[in-house]
Design goal:
Layout: H1 3-13, H2 22-31, H3 33-40, H4 52-67, E1 70-75, H5 81-96, E2 102-107, H6 110-126, H7 128-134, E3 136-142, E4 146-151, E5 154-162, E6 179-183, H8 194-208, E7 220-225, H9 233-238, E8 244-248, E9 251-253, E10 269-270, H10 277-286, H11 288-294, E11 312-313, E12 321-327, E13 338-346, E14 349-357, H12 361-376, E15 382-387, H13 390-405, E16 412-415, H14 421-426, H15 429-433, E17 437-440, H16 444-452, H17 460-472, H18 479-501
Parallel strand pairs: 1-7, 1-8, 2-5, 2-6, 6-7, 11-17, 12-15, 14-17, 15-16
Antiparallel strand pairs: 3-4, 4-5, 9-10, 12-13, 13-14
Helix pairs in contact: 2-3, 5-6, 10-11, 12-13
């Protein structure tokens, strides 16, 4: 026995001095999960608690585990899910509430599960306040994968496993597993193929779901993780009626009007507003696919996305012809955007720049007129498409009236949309995926729409592109003839410049 161990043994043998505050601490700790953590794990947390996810879990954990047997918590990477649920909550449900005597913790690998158990063991061995208040003593089993301990006269066992492995769910002291924590079961390696995802789901259903006793109505299976694939285990569990799901993304609300270089950070609502918004936004711009999966729990599915093959461009060239498609937000849902697509044609390709914002019609009219004037100043053909039904027709009249007041003639083409919107938008799939229509990389909101359609929250940008595309491919405009004329004109200009330079 080392000197430190001998000293600890002697200290434990001493008669304990009554602690008048102990009863008050225990009363608070047993009535509130947050108070339990504040009292006994203060060194592991920061106060005040700034995370919406963690505040919600602290507040509702007791009620949720009483009302629901199976719970799924989707939270972003870095949200302290493991510390909060697999460590603190496991101890709370066992020693504080004396409810869960047989607990199993499963992670993607056994190494990760062992780290969680090592944390718990360390607290049970060295957290003097926790040890004294709950009268913690170690049992005979104290390994890297399983421990038995006592809180007063109550006995508890915690075992850890790796995902996909055989799990021993035997009866222990009259208790089959009562609390099962599945903590980040999936990683980038085990969700790559459909076969892997099917195997994970089958293992979960046949091994994990069968662990509690059939007649135990007080058990809990808590799955916590990040959705890494649209067909992942978490996505499948979310679709099950026997799981109650809660989702906590890093970005709770994106700004309504954001384009490259024009972000109002005050409108960027995060789970934790003490985080560096600029840094998080830059991370979003650098790798949107990874950001949406790891931080938003919304993995972008290239297999199911209609426009997965789109290509982008940096700067709009000086095009041979221009078409504008307008989808006003008038009379529609408050969540809809006012979308304006400028579609340019140059050397056999179409270039789409789509601006989307939640702006008043009067302001949009001025912007559209400015866009039209800039195109007309290039001495290039222009057409503007607007749907003429209800509020859209009213907007068309407002736009035309304002333009005439300024002495400007706008070549507006009225469109009657007799075909369902879904079919019209689907008609864009070939030209966008085949790179006949290229997308302005600064059209960020529209690119979000492309990445998630048909599950996107809105389709206003696509609606504006479809209208611009429809009038662009109308038979009354001969692109080949225009190309011939412009090529001839450019050749003449080049020839004349050559003569002048000699």
């Amino acid at each position: 026995m080392t000197g430190a161990e001998e000293l600890r043994a002697r200290l434990k043998g001493l008669k304990r001095v009554p602690d008048p505050a102990k009863l008050e601490r225990l009363k608070k700790a047993k009535s509130s999960f947050y108070e339990f953590v504040k009292i006994y794990f203060a060194k592991h947390i920061q106060e005040p608690e700034n995370s919406f996810f963690r505040r919600e879990f602290y507040k509702n954990a007791i009620k949720l585990t009483k009302n629901h047997r199976n719970l799924l918590f989707k939270a972003y990477r870095g949200a302290a899910k493991t510390t909060l649920i697999s460590r603190f909550f496991v101890l709370f449900k066992s020693i504080a509430l004396d409810e869960k005597h047989n607990t199993i913790i499963i992670s993607a690998t056994i190494a990760l599960s062992k780290k969680t158990l090592e944390f718990i063991k360390d607290e049970l061995e060295s957290n003097e306040l926790l040890i004294n208040d709950f009268e913690i003593t170690k049992g005979r089993t104290w390994t890297k994968e399983e421990i038995v301990f006592y809180a007063g006269k109550s006995a508890f066992k915690i075992s850890v496993y790796g995902a996909g492995k055989k799990i021993r769910g035997e009866n222990w002291r009259g208790h089959r597993p009562q609390l099962i924590i599945c903590d980040d079961l999936e990683n980038d390696k085990n969700i790559k193929t459909k076969a892997q995802r099917d195997d994970m789901n089958e293992w979960f259903v046949k091994a994990v779901m069968k662990l509690p006793a059939r007649d135990d109505t007080n058990h809990n299976i808590i799955v916590v993780g990040t959705t890494l694939h649209h067909d992942s285990l978490l996505a499948r569990l979310e679709a099950r009626s026997d799981f109650q799901t809660f989702s906590y993304p890093l970005v709770r609300k994106f700004p309504e009007n954001f384009e490259s270089g024009k972000l109002n950070f005050k409108e960027l609502l995060l789970d934790n507003d003490t985080l560096d918004k600029k840094s998080i936004w830059n991370e979003y711009l650098q790798d949107k696919d990874a950001f949406m999966s790891e931080y938003q729990n919304e993995p972008l599915s290239k297999e199911s996305a209609s426009f997965s093959g789109y290509q982008t461009f940096d700067l709009m060239p000086k095009c041979d012809a221009y078409y504008i498609g307008i989808d006003p937000a008038l009379g529609k849902s408050k969540g809809d955007y006012f979308a304006v697509c400028v579609l340019g044609f140059y050397e056999g390709k179409f270039y789409a720049s789509v601006k989307m914002s939640k702006t008043k019609p009067e302001a949009m009219i001025e912007k559209i007129i400015q866009i039209a004037l800039s195109i007309l100043s290039l001495n290039r053909p222009l057409k503007i498409a607007i749907e003429t039904i209800q509020f859209q027709e009213f907007f068309k009249d407002m736009l035309d009236k304002r333009a005439r007041e300024l002495g400007i003639y706008l070549p507006i083409v009225e469109l009657k949309n007799n075909i369902p919107k879904e079919l019209r938008i689907d008609s864009l799939t070939p030209p966008i995926n085949n790179a006949q229509i290229l997308i302005d990389k600064s059209s960020l909101i529209f690119i979000d729409e492309l990445d998630t359609y048909p599950k996107s929250a809105h389709d206003d940008g696509l609606d504006s592109v479809e209208m611009a595309w429809r009038i662009a491919k109308a038979p009354n405009f001969d692109y080949e003839k225009v190309n011939e004329i412009l090529k001839s004109k450019r050749d003449k200009e080049k020839f004349l410049r050559g003569l002048l330079d000699k």
